[in-house]
Amino acid sequence: MTRAFFAGALALVAFEVASVYFIMPMPGSQRMRSLELAYLLFHWRWPVRIALTMLIVAGVPAVWRGGRGRRVIAGLTLAAALAVAAVFKIRLSADRIFLPPRTLVMAPAAANDVALDRLVVGIEIRGEARAYPLQFIGYHHQVRDVVQGMPVLVSYCTVCRTGRVFEPVVDGEVETFRLVGMDHFNAMLEDATTASWWRQANGEAVVGPRTGLVMPEIPSRQVTLAQWLALYPASLIMQADPAFAAEYARDYAFERGTSRARLTGTDPRSWEDKSWVVGLRIGEAERAYDWNELLAEGAINDTLGGRPVVLVVAADSASFFAFERPDEATRFTVSADSLRAGERAFAFNGRGPGGELRPITASQEFWHSWRTFHPRTTRH
């Protein structure tokens, strides 16, 4: 039974390490197809913990009879096992590293403290506009809000550079989520009702009782705050939560792509894993556009899914927009902060004296992320 004690202690360590390893960005973990295994370990965590604890307890009498030396070794082994388990399960758990805001303060432009050159994820719902700075949502990963009576889940994954906004309604009920980890470098959210895991990149439940369900996505734009306020001057802007002031990024390295950090840094070249692309999807057609090409051209006229489209970047070299073109013959260029097609001019909200352009949701992210979660994508 002495062996039972030591086997139980070592197995407990192995189990706790494995349950964290497969859903956190550790060497090799994010390139495996291990989602089902990770979920299985999570689902059976308490029965396994109880069984291993019972195995340890069963071996205690034999250890105690083994003399002082064996008792000391056993005590040290158990203490080390518990310490390692605590570090992996408590210190390295995603929802303990990245916490949701304690208070959500939305301020008008006149009371705003966020720098105008910061990037934001902006939404407009029933005439009300709101902006959520990457500086804040990049740490929190998810922010809950209500806009015009609609529940809103603003999410961001810095490892994928994916900003997505969803209506968190599942089976007719408003759902709450916690950050549980990541899979293939994308943040994974767990719902409170069924403990199903949902992928942040597309709002789909990928394992658990709700597998296959998808949260409705709310169209959003990633632009500078200055550009957003130029389009929506009455917008409200998320302000810093004082409780997390020390956690928010103070520099612009992530936003501007100058960071070379292993997980969140940018590769300035084109079509590398950590290169920036802008992804578009129309129906079943998906395409990635090289950010460097977009900066060089200003506007890219293309056809996707049988529809003429245009992708543009503003003069700030950070704000980007996508629209359907009226027809194949109409080709756009960028002039200052407007779209032009001959004598017709359109603001970046798609509106102009010559009519209104239909916006298309466009997402800037790392190339490895877009191609992983859009495997049928083509490259422009």
Describe the protein's topology.
Elements lengths: L1 H20 L13 H9 L1 H21 L2 H24 L2 H4 L8 E2 L11 E7 L2 E6 H7 L1 E6 L2 E8 L4 E5 L2 E2 L2 E2 L2 E7 L2 E6 L5 E3 L4 E4 L13 E4 H7 L4 E3 L14 H4 L19 E7 L2 E6 H7 L1 E6 L2 E7 L6 E5 L8 E3 L2 E4 L2 E3 L4 E2 L2 E2 L5 E5 H7 L4 E2 L1
Parallel strand pairs: 3-14, 16-26
Antiparallel strand pairs: 1-14, 2-3, 2-13, 4-5, 5-6, 7-8, 9-10, 10-11, 11-12, 15-16, 15-25, 17-18, 18-19, 20-21, 21-22, 23-24
The total number of structural domains is 3
Overall shape = elongated
Helical content (DSSP H or I, runs of 4+): 25-40%
Poorly predicted regions are none
Strand % is 25-35%
End-to-end separation: 65 Å
Q: How many strand elements?
A: 26
Structural class: alpha+beta
Main sheet record: 5 strands, mixed
Q: Count up the helices.
A: 10
Give the integer mean of the pLDDT values: 90
What Rg is obtained from the alpha carbons, in whole angstroms?
25 Å
